[in-house]
Structure formats: C-alpha cells, structure tokens
Fold:
Amino acid sequence: MHVTGIITAIIIGLVIGALGRLVVPGRQHIPMWLTIVIGVVAALIGTAIAGGLGVADTKGVDWVELILQIGLAAVGVALAAGMYGRRGVR
Structure:
C-alpha cells in the first residue's frame, strides 16, 4: 500500500463510515466522530484485505473492495453501538 492509497482510504473512509452506519438497522447512539474513525479503519482494513485477495486494483470501480469496506464499517458501527450504549447504563 502506497501513501496515496492510504490517503485515498482515509478520504473514502469518511464516506464508508456513514454508509456503514446506514447499513446497521435501528438507531446507533454513538458520536459522529466515532463513526468516522470506524469508517477510516474499515477502509484501511478493507483495502488491505482486497489487496491480499488481488482485487484491489481493477479496471473501473473496485466493487469487491467497496463492499468489504462497507461490511467492515457496518460490523464496527454495530459493535461500537453495543459497547458505547452499555457504557452509559449502570
């Protein structure tokens, strides 16, 4: 992964976090900054997995990579919502 790939993954991660939040059903009681962080991490991990599978650099839109990133973001948002929600309950 090159520096331009990392920067692109971070920018895409901002959008991926929002998409991941939309994929998870119900209302998530987590701050927006946490959603963005989850999206950035999901984008970086999704890019690495797609690179390992050999589907990161294709002609046109890298659909497999995008689906991996959104899926990882959705899982991250769901986990964070569960953990963050429990933190406020005593």
Summary: The chain has three helices and no strands. Residues 28 and 81 are 6 Å apart (CA to CA). The chain has one domain: 3-85. Residues 3-85 form one domain.
